[in-house]
Amino acid sequence: MSTLRPSRLVALVSVLVVSLSIAFPSTAATRPQSAKRVYVVVDIDRIGHERLTALKSLAGVDWWVELDDQMLVSGQPAMLENLDRAGFASRMLSGDIDAENLHLLYGRDAELSGARVLAQGGRFAVVHATPAQKARLEGIHDHDLDGESDVPHGHNEVHPFRPNVSLVHQAANSEARQPAAWDVAIQALVDAIDGNRWFADIQTLGQWNRHSRQPGNLTARDWLVAQFQAIPGLAVTTQSFNIPSPSTTSFNVIATLTGTTRPDEWYIVGGHFDSTSQSTSTAAPGCEDNGSGTAGVLEMARIFAAHPPEATIIFVCYSGEEQGLYGGTAHAASLVTSGDDDKVQAVLTMDMIGYTGDSDLDCLLETNSSGQFMIDAYAAAAAQYTTLRILTTLNPFGSDHVPYLNRGMPALLTIENDWDSYPNYHRTTDTANNITIDMGLQTLRMNVAALAKMIAAPPAGTGSDTIGVYDPSTSNFFLRNTNAAGGADVVFSFGAGGAGYVPLAGDWNGDGSDTIGLYDPVSGVFFLKNSVTPGGADLAFNFGPGGLGWKPVVGDWDGNGTDTVGLYSPSTGTFFLRNTNAPGGADVSFGYGPAGATPVIGDWDGNGADSIGVYIPATSTFFLRNGNSPGGADLVFSYGAGGAGFVPVVGDWNSDGADTVGLYQPTGGSFFLRNANSPGGASVVFGYGPPSGMVSVRGDWNNL
User: Fold this and answer.
1) pTM exceeding the 0.70 threshold for the entire prediction
2) DSSP string of 349-379?
3) How far apart, in whole angstroms, are the C-alpha atoms of residue 660 and residue 652?
4) Burial class (CB in 10 A: 0-12, 13-18, 19+), 105
5) What is the signed CA dihedral for 78, 80, 83, 85, rounded to 10 degrees?
6) Rounded to whole angstroms, how far apart are CA atoms 95 and 86?
7) Interatomic CA distance for residues 125 and 103, integer angstroms
8) Domain range list for the chain
9) Distances from the Cα of 370 to the Cαs of 23, 396, 404, 676, in angstroms?
10) Which of 96, 246, 451, 581 is most enclosed, with most CB atoms within 10 A?
11) Cis before residue 246, ω within 30 degrees of 0?
């Protein structure tokens, strides 16, 4: 990747402005437009990062949705009808498609409702459903096929349509990264995994009807307790909880392997042992769902107990998952109640890891943006120690990782990517003969290698933001790793001092750490750097017209774990947001709030995607919105003294996964940070930096 030395910033600006022909702002609808538009499914199987990026920005593409090996695209007929000329294999969708009837389905069984699947990948699909079909789809339950019972399953969710989103992403289409060094100790752990032993445990579990309300569930609980107790070094307990309607007491089985040197750093490995079927009164063997994951927990416990780790690993087998994640919720909630959630570094859940419908051993890694570091670690481990093809998504649902994510603990689900086509899903025929040992073995190799790597390394942290200041006269950044008075932890110069640049901060490369950048308002050029050190820019590109009073904004607009840029026009109150850090038009544009406001950006609701807001200095009032679209404010509150010259700052000050506001007083060099988006006093107040002439910045500089 080319770099730009600070001394050459100004010279290169003029070259870029002349050489780059940018149409701005070209807008992409926040809701698909049906008039004179076509819908095309494009084959993107392993086409690579560069071609995937080119497809998304192709002229004539209004919006796209990425789903594993296919991308649903809508746009102008004259362009999309000839995608083959651009080298993309595609097929045009026929029939009437009403944009208002598009929905995102997390789950399966769309056809049972009469809905039409337009494109599908793994656990996700874009469906066309009338209001009646949508209501039917939302009402599909676990046992609708034979009418035996009507228990809400929780694994089928209908979401509003969102364009320009990656629901399932192939690791093969990611930007290439330097492979990690081979580790002989990790290889020894990987080699110790016994696929036949894992399969034998699945066969044993498959003997019992493990439905949460059946006696076989308690038999399986007792067997799991005995298996964990037979492993040296584990402390084994059970946790009871209630499943309502009808009230049933169920149990989690918990085995703790205390760390040798860092016992208060906790890693959790879990999988649900309960099962279900279309006839739970007769049989629910649940070998794939989820005897495979439960046996995986046992196998990983044996491996790590034989090689005691420095940090603590807690192995959990949950019940009550099929009735609505009751076991996972009980355990996650207990950690919050006891105050131990801060000890949790990462949670791994395994749900259906042993089936493959073909020779392609493909595995889906699922989390939200707080777990991006886990996707990176597990994808890297898969590339180095397995034959798996990896898919990723930041749209979690329907398994025991969700209760942890909902409580601010980073959690990852590993699940075989043929889940949607498994013909014995929730059937009495979900038996051990459907399992492919190599599929489970390769998944366990990835899971063991990634967990060992994370435990050996310093904890990844949960993304706490801290402050810094930028000196425009010298272009020096002074960054601090705690929100308290004190000296700078990092000091360096980037860019040309006194040139009028605006400082930026964001995670430009998706590695979990924020780094800095500069925006030149004269030319409209962004200069972004992937480290907080002196040196040249890693990315330099033009976006928008220069010299017109635009204000730069930064956010993860599509929830993919990477920050990209945007612009705000104070004269019109319009946002222009772009989903890649490259030249091109706006992907989303819309007006919000009155002209002349100050833009603020943050993940207000903790859903993993950033959205916009505005701050009115005269009244010190924040108007925050949970979506990047026109509409009213979701949060309105006053904070601080109006008209007093304060500047808004935004960050996740307390590591709870949601951004909240703060104020910076340039004349006094003081920060006033609040841990809630509501009226009230500052949670943290401190002075930092010179009392005048500084510009505030914030970011997770050290990934802690």
Assistant:
1) no
2) EE-S-S--SSS--EEEEE--GGGHHHHHHHH
3) 6
4) buried
5) 10
6) 25
7) 8
8) 27-172, 201-456, 466-699
9) 34, 11, 11, 19
10) 451
11) yes
Amino acid (1-letter code) at residue 40? V
| DSSP characters over 173-236 | GSPP-PPPPP-HHHHHHHHT--HHHHHHHHHHHTTS---TTSHHHHHHHHHHHHHHHTSTT-EE
511 touches 496 (CB < 8 A): no
Amino acid 704: pLDDT: 59
**Class assignment of domain 201-456?**
alpha beta
**Short-list 368, 372, 336, 342, CA closest to 655:** 342
Task: Tell me which of 2.30.29, 2.130.10, 1.20.58, 2.60.120 is the CATH number of domain 466-699.
Answer: 2.130.10
**What confidence score (pLDDT) does residue 12 get?**
31
β strands within 433-523, DSSP E: 466-471, 476-479, 490-493, 502-506, 515-520
Contact 206, 216 (CB under 8 A): no
Please name which of 528, 583, 582, 577 lies closest in space to residue 164, comparing C-alpha atoms.
577
d(CA 636, CA 616): 11
Ranges of the chain with pLDDT below 70: 1-35, 109-112, 140-155, 178, 180, 457-463, 703-704
pLDDT for the residue 458:
53
How confident is the model at residue 150, as a pLDDT?
A: 34
**CB of 521 closer than 8 Å to CB of 500:** yes
